[in-house]
Amino acid sequence: MRSQILIVDDEPVARQSLSDILKLEGHSVTAAPTGQVAVEYVRTHTVDLAVVDLRMPGMDGLEVAKVINQVSPETQIILLTAYGSTETAIQGLRLRIHDYVLKPASPQEIVASVRKGLARRGERLRAQMERSEGRESLDSVQAIQLKDGTLVDLARRQIHQKNKSAHLTPAEGRLLRVLMENPGKVFSHRELVLLVQGYDTTHREAPEVLRPLISRLRHKLESFPGLSERIASIRGTGYVYEGEK
Fold it and tell me: Cβ neighbours of residue 80 under 8 Å, at least 6 residues apart?
């Protein structure tokens, strides 16, 4: 199936040029001359990726990106502009824009950015599917008992050992569940944010998003060393649960 790409640019020559480039790559391309036309299109059509010009009359590129994120969060966005600035780049990061490309961009740059964006979308959708498919099997596991007597009730998000107990928040419970149900598997920071928090981040942002949650979980597990010691940090990569042998 061909990828559905939306070009949003008020300049006719730029719209046509981008459309031709991406059609030659085998994509299905729709062009919109204004931000308003673009957001109305996204509300009623599937769009895998949008290439959006920053400076446009009426709705500018950042406003378009904000609406697309709300209406179709799976759509990847490339912001295209001749006016680069640190402030705009920061705003783009906050909106989780896939890429920020300065004009004039070569066809090779556009094609490469689009390929990366579509690949990123595919990874995200696969992770969401795996998460959804795994819910039934995860929910079927009521409790796991470790050799030292620690009982981890994944359904109720509770941990017990003799006269000690701890109750986890929903996010802490999801994090522990993902790790314990996949012993020996190293999860990247980005994968864990997606699986636990439900949204995608960049590789740079993910550790910062995950760190407070990991810290809170470790604090609650301090009373259960047989469990806490099995959650290992893989430097520069992520985390793994080392199962009992």
Answer: 9, 51, 52, 53, 54, 61, 101, 103, 105
Sequence-separated (6 or more) residues with CB below 8 Å from residue 177: 138, 154
Residue 235: predicted pLDDT: 86
Model-level pTM? 0.53
Average pLDDT over residues 9-20: 94
**Cβ count near 46 (within 10 Å):** 10
pLDDT of residue 215: 92
- Give the list of residues 6+ apart from residue 52 with CB closer than 8 angstroms, or none: 8, 9, 35, 38, 61, 64, 65, 68, 77, 78, 79, 80
Cα separation, 187 vs 165, in Å, equals 27
CA 116 to chain centre: 14
Query: Domains (ranges, CATH) in the chain?
Result: 4-124 (3.40.50.2300), 141-241 (1.10.10.10)
- Which structure tokens are listed for 62? 């950042």
Instruction: Please list, in sequence order, all residues whose beta carbon lies within 8 angstroms of the beta carbon of residue 241, skipping any fewer than 6 positions away.
Output: 179, 180, 182, 183, 184, 185, 230, 231, 232
